[in-house]
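Kindly review this record before class:
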Amino acid sequence: MHRHTEPQWDLSIGPDTVRLFILKAKAIGAALGDTHADGSEHEVEFDGDGHDNHHHDGLAEEEVENLTGEELRELIEDLNIDEKAELIALAWIGRGDYSASEWGDTLAAARERVNRRSTHYLLGMPHLAEWLEEGLEAIGA
């Protein structure tokens, strides 16, 4: 008989808030994936006449990505220390550094990691959205 027990993880940050971060991070990743997929975003091809074939729409092309990135940055900055630690811990669990059963140790290590650069650290994770998603799933949130 499988008994449903209350999760041992009492999160300060709501799972819905984490899911909002996941959506924002996915939007950023999708925007980067579209423009940087081939790894040659700085290459410009020239035709025989020496004209630039790259058509750039200026800020209109950049605004959505930057706005989403800035929104996510501000959302993370607004978190308190416990919420930032939990976000880092969820990412670590999702990345496979720790298991869900090690939540206490993971959270303790994440609390030691929280500082002024925590937002930069989180946004520097290449698969932040996926790792947060997997972390939430692992703890059953």
